[in-house]
Fold GTPase Era.
Amino acid sequence: MTENTHKAGFVNIIGKPNVGKSTLMNVLIGERLSIISSKAQTTRHRIMGIINDDHYQIVFSDTPGMLKPKYELHKNMMGFVHMSLEDADVILFVTDLFETDEEIEDVIEKINQSGVPVLLVINKIDLSKENQLEEVTQYWTQRIKAETVIPISATESFNTERILQEILDRLPVHPPFYNKDELTDKPERFFASEIVREKIFLNYKKEIPYSTQVEIEDFYEEENIIRIRAIIYVERSSQKGIIIGEGGKALKRIGTQARLEMEKFFGKKIFLETYVKVAEDWRKDKNKLRRFGYDQ
Ligand code: GDP
Ligand code: K
Ligand code: MG
């Protein structure tokens, strides 16, 4: 492998509940060793799993709150949905033999307008009756502008390899987004930092989240508790004040939200300390970027 043929990108998995997204992820990921799977929430995506290979890195994620009923969707602001579609390299739209487009017409329209290549995956074909797959395929291809249709059975691992191939064909040449070694060595830290980052995105307005970076300085697991020390880096001291908030209230709120999320995620009691530090203009500083895990 040479550096300049390595492929990497984001695959956004979209589909109604119970069409088999998790089962499919387990199949895609379970066959490979160098993989971390997780339910961690990130700012724009919820990372479901990452497949690492010498030649590529595929980051699978779904879009939080995407396929809720319409009123929820509007409440959750369509911009958010739009954004997470736009920064995907490939969209995997998963459905099965039984689902319809009811309640997700808006989302489908967004997908069709996004300009991102869509792979239409029709799952559970092990249950197909005569002509059913043909009918279902026709139904969905009239609704989703897909580059290709991939009928699969996730439970029987039928045709799932083709999904990987179709993704790789469309993945850009790019260095890995997440440090491969670090992911296999210390996935916990990675997910802990993503959880803190998500809470920052949820609690502060525009500029602040993009100016912050989170580093997990300590991750110490004991029998009944995990002790985590998170450093939130901002670019300027004025931002530090905003993050901390009046009387420390804002920082405390993020800390509590992150802790509760981590307890769910790690299944253990968490002791979380958060500190805010200024790393002046870290976004412009190569060494600092590297330190935060952006290696390119
Ligand atoms: P998700 O909500 O989209 O993540 O769906 P899940 O992966 O949790 O699957 C929902 C249900 O569909 C589970 O009972 C799975 O066992 C079942 N399921 C998933 N894939 C298949 C498949 O290929 N064939 C059949 N018959 N059932 C499947
Ligand atoms: K489910
Ligand atoms: Mg699921």
